[in-house]
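Hi everyone,

Forwarding the result from last night's run.
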Amino acid sequence: MNLKTHFHHIASPVKDKTLVEAIELIRNIKFELEQGSSKKLREQILQAFHHCGWSGKVKLGPGTNISITAINGDYALCLQTGNMGRFYADLLKLQYLYQKKKIKAAIYVLPTKKSASALGSNLANFERMTNEILLFSETITIPMIIIGIE
């Protein structure tokens, strides 16, 4: 898969093994984007991460159904292949975990605008997220790699 990357409050993943492995893991996934295949894409990415030691869905706390996609050590993973409005909730969840010192960084994966158009309508996309997150750089302080898949 071709990838686009954006580093939010992080200089580079080069010295961080977990982040480099995550980028390579996604890059090596073979997938044909087509209308309505976002669920299959999500399952394939989650399976690859699980195979490499990432957890399944993790609740933010007891007594809540609020969750993120996965955790591996000090890192959280959010995979968004759905509606654009959901990425704001994901950012709040990641920032919460970071402020509570439960994670030290995050990986956020979503389709590029071109891929999102191929998968469906009004889906979250890399270009919109990376443009909008700049507005919130003083509020969303978690170091994060945003990966756009194409």
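The chain has a mean pLDDT of 87.

Cheers,
N.
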